[in-house]
Amino acid sequence: MIGRFFLAALAAGLFVGALMTPVHYARLVPLILHAETFESGGAAAHDHAAINDETMALRLVGSATAAQTATDGAGLLHLVHSPAASGEEGDGTGLFESRLLGTFFANIVAGAGFALVLAAISLLLGVPLTAANGALWGVVGFFVASLAPAIGLAPELPAMPAADLAARQTWWIATVALTGIGAYLLILRSEAWAKIGGLVLVALPQIYGAPQPDTLDSPVPATLAAEFASSSLATAAVFWLVLGLCLGLAMDRFGAREA
Amino acid sequence: MSIRTGTVADLSASTRLAVGIAALFTGAFLIWGVGFAHSEALHDTAHDVRHSYGFPCH
After folding, report:
1. B chain contacts of residue A121, beta-carbon cutoff 8 Å
2. Mean pLDDT rounded to a whole number for chain A
3. How many beta carbons lie within 10 A of that of residue A243, not counting itself?
4. Is A93 exposed, middle or buried, given 0-12, 13-18 or 19+ CB atoms closer than 10 A?
5. What was the ipTM of the complex prediction?
């Protein structure tokens, strides 16, 4: 019995994670690969990448920026990737030979992780998560864990300027935690203090502000970054909706039956 | 021992608490591994997923 809800959540998460992999490959991975051609940090190690850098930069960025990129190597805040991440399949330090396989496993683990946390919240609060209300759980999950952190930290591409990693991770976790508690107070509590407190908690991390980079100079074209940001959020919305629904179905199926 | 299992709300409070906490920690651990761990192997494997979900990556 103990393991029943646990396994139901796990199964739903693994399934949705697997489902998201082709979506990522259709909408997001091509943009990531494109952005990686602007990472001048890898130029010394990979000559073909350097050529790519220049031609791409000349074609897509203004000539002034392109000249700077070509002559000034790592002068701007170009973030350096490890070989595996810059598309050099096989010689990286990833757990899998193939980039696709790595993404697949990361996706199913992420799906399982988010599904377990969603199921845990349902169990701890005593609020049922069913097929009937699963989509609503998913919508709340999207607002809390995707939209709220994206307000301060727009989904980023490789080679884009960014502030200190640990500071951004801390802000991300704090924002999701505070927004989650805020959502609980706003949605499930009816007291006036809870409504006000919920609004304060949701607004607090945004007022405090996410860590921002010193410069906005980026070798990645703005149109590419914009396309990635909207695609990333749209994909996340699909993920959360499907996850909520599947989790609800799994909970109904495995939880509400005779043992 | 035939137990009639119902929806989440029908479970005893202590069962809900135990399963809930177990699921919460397991889920958080998995998300940490995919989205936050600084291990190079994990970063490289989950790289595209980190970017796609909007986790801070570099």
Report:
1. 20, 24
2. 82
3. 28
4. middle
5. 0.86
Q: Do A256 and B20 touch (CB under 8 A)?
A: no
Q: CA A158 to CA B58: how far, in whole Å?
A: 8
A-chain residues near B40 (CB < 8 A)? 82, 93
Nearest CB to B27; choose among A81, A116, A235: A116
Look at the block and give the residue holding tokens 């930290």: A153
Q: What is the dihedral of CA B31, B32, B38, B40, to 10 degrees?
A: -40
pLDDT in tens, A147-171: 999 999 999 999 999 999 999 999 9
**Model pLDDT, residue B11:** 66
Q: What is the pLDDT of residues A25-62, one digit of tens each?
A: 999 999 999 999 998 654 433 444 444 444 444 334 33
Interface probe, candidates A32, A81, A109, chain B, greatest B C-beta count within 10 A: A109
